[in-house]
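Encode chain A's predicted structure.
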Amino acid sequence: MDRFDSMRLFTRVVERRSFTAAAADLGLPRSSATAAIKELEKRLGVQLLRRTTRHVATTPDGEAYYQRCIGILADIEDAEGGFDAREVRGRLSVDVNGHMARTFLLPELPALLARHPGLSVHIGEGDRLVDLVREGVDCVIRAGMLPDSDMIVRRLGIAREVTVASPAYLERHGVPRTLDDLAGHMMIGFVSSRTRQVMPLEFTVDGKVREVVLPSRVTVVNSDTSAALVRLGFGLFQAPKLRYADDIGAGRLVEVLPDNPPTPTPISVLYPPSRQLSPRVRVFVDWLVEILGPKLEPA
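Encoded structure for chain A:
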C-alpha cells in the first residue's frame, strides 16, 4: 500500500470511526487495514488513533494528520479530474428519499455511468438526518428547510406543494372550499426527523402562511408510507406536486384548496466541507442540476 492509499484508508477510518466499516468501504480485509494503519503510525513515529472496543478516535496528532490528509487527497483528486472529466472514478455514496431516487435518479443513472465508466454509486434511501462523515456518505439530497450545520449546501430548485386527498375520503368528509371548512377533517401526521413533532399543514392566505393542525389517527416518518395512507383515504396530506402528479392525473387523488397552496419546498444537495473538491461529488451535483433543474422551479 503506497502513501496515498494509506492516507485514504486513514481518513476513512477516522470518518467511519471503525476499521471494519472503513475496510469494507475500500474493499479491503479488516486485517489488512489494521496492519496498514500500524505501519503508517510506525513510519510517522506517532500514535494517530485510539482504539476501544466500541469505536476509534483520533489523537491530537491524528487529528492534525487527518486535516492535512483530506487537503492533500482533495488536491490529488482535483488535479487528476481536471484533465479529463471522463477520468472520474471510484465509489460515490449518496443518500436520497426513495421515491425521488426511483422516479428521477434511476431512469437517468445509466447515462451518468456510461459517461463515467470508472464511477460506481451506492444509493442509501432515507428521509432522516444523517451524519455524513461518520456514516461514510459523500452527499445527500433533501427537501425542506435545513438546520444550520457546517455542510456545504447547493440549492437545486423549488418544488411546488399541494394538498391532496383520496376521492373516498372526500366523499366521507366533504371537499373543503375554505380553511374554515377544515373543521371535522383529518390529516396524516408526518413526524419531522429533526423536531420529532408532527408537522402542521401550511396554507397561503393573502400572501401569509397559516399553519393548521388537524387530528391524526395515524402518524408516520416515511414518505412512501404517507403516500400509501393518503391513497387509502386516511386524511389530507401535503407534498411536492411532482410526487402526486400521476395520482392526480389518474383520479386516484384530488388536489384540494388549490387557491391556498402550501409554501414551496426547496430541494438541496449537501456534502461535507472535506468533499467539496472531490471530482466525484462535483460530477454528481452537476448531473443533479441537469436532470432535476427542468422539473423544479428556479431557486
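The first helix runs from residue 3 to 16.
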